[in-house]
Amino acid sequence: MKKLKIAMFMDSWYPNVDGVVVVMDNLLKNLNKYADVTLVVPKMEKNEDDSIYPFKVIRVDSVPLPISNYRVGLVDLEYLKLKKIFDDMDFDIIHIHSPFALGKLGIRVAKSKKIPVVATMHTRWEFEFEKYLKSKRIANLCIKYLIKSYNKCNSCIALNKSLIKVYNDYGYKGKYQIINNGTDLEIVRDKEKSLDRVNNLFKLNKDDIVFLFVGRIVSFKNIYFILDTLKELKNRNFKFKMIYVGDGPDYDELNKKIREYRLSNEVLLAGKIMDRELLKSIYYRSNLFLFPSLFDSSSLVQIEAASQETPTIFIAGSVTSDTVENNVNGFTATEDINAFADRIEEIIDNKKLYKKVQKNAKKDLAKPWKDVALETYNYYLKVIEEYNNK
Question: d(Cα 362, Cα 140) in Å, to the nearest integer?
């Protein structure tokens, strides 16, 4: 196998943690086993120790981006210095993970070196843009501007078929390859110990039906739809416990609604959990992962849940449900509170179907990152060959 020289460009990195950062981290670590990998990211804070990573890291000076946790790389101001750095480096391919300053720099470097550049489509931009810009028209103009970066790439990675349709609607016209996300989680080893740990932490009874959400606590992930569904289930005298894991801008509002709905005994806010072993145990303890998000493209958390044999219920037709077949390796329901509540009751009551879907979810969806990295590496080889033969 040829040892490629790969450079990845992204507009965020640790200590800022989001789904894209986690995807890149796992790809880089696994690709680094049989490739020379370089990461190009903004300086996120002072005195960063990049020696902890098994791959080379290049930092670009940056400034904070208002109303967000992100930073903007000062690419234009730093370009002459950066050009000198990259002129002395050889790459076979560039891989960008965002269309902003660092992503544009990656495209620029690829063009100057006459090598191919690929991009991964991670995000449905309209939800966040409309939330923060308060204007659908301005959000659409921003998306049209960003999609130009993807159209400058030789090909793109999409996480599923539905996401390609979204990006085609944005204006993407190029080639693509579908490569699903993976997970670093393996099934818990000591099952009884894991169950006891979670039960003790959250004061759960052994027989409690437990629902789970993991992710940013933000309205466009349909967190209030979940709460409305839980309220309906309680009105039906359906007994359950619900755990929200995560933090975000709508955490306080969610907490307020829990009290207003008189669900404080049923719904638990766990905050952000960085302990992966504990998180794994929470997935394993949960009976059903509730993920009615219309924002997500292919969330890591649904794969993590599947790795612990916990199936997910989605909104039917949502992009993030694309890799799931209803009643085979996951569940779907319409975006209606009563219908979603009906479906949850059906799932919990039908133990034979539940067990089948539980096993299939792990088998079909929980692909290890090492397999995803190898698939990505082979995709690089294909893109490079096509580039050299054109």
Answer: 37
Q: Are 272 and 244 in contact (CB under 8 A)?
A: no
**Of the candidates 339, 246, 251, which has an alpha carbon nearest to the alpha carbon of residue 296?**
246
When comparing pLDDT for 134 and 24, which is higher? 24
Most confident of 60-74, 129-143, 338-352: 338-352
Nearest to 4 by CA among 94, 88, 85: 94
Section 326-332 average pLDDT:
98
Q: Which fold has domain 5-182+369-389?
A: Rossmann fold (3.40.50)
CATH architecture group of domain 191-365 = 3-Layer(aba) Sandwich (3.40)
CB-based contact 183:303 (threshold 8 Å): yes
User: Which residues partner with 72 through β-bridges?
Assistant: 63
Q: How far apart are CA 69 and CA 201, in angstroms?
A: 30
Domain ranges of the chain: 5-182+369-389, 191-365
One fold for 5-182+369-389 and 191-365: yes
Task: Tell me the C-alpha distance between 114 and 110, whole Å.
Answer: 6
Cis peptide before 368 (omega within 30 of 0): no
Q: Contact at 8 Å (CB) between 227 and 263?
A: yes
3-state helix, strand and coil shares in percent for the chain, rounded to the nearest 5: 45, 20, 35
* CA distance linking residue 101 with residue 62, whole number of Å: 10
- In 3D space, the residue among 377, 388, 385, 387 whose CA is nearest the CA of residue 95 turns out to be 377
288, 332 contact by CB (below 8 A) = no
Query: Nearest-CA neighbor of 22 among 284, 298, 269?
Result: 298
Amino acid found at 287: N
Q: How far apart are CA 180 and CA 158, in angstroms?
A: 8
Task: Answer yes or no: is pLDDT of 69 > 70.
Answer: no
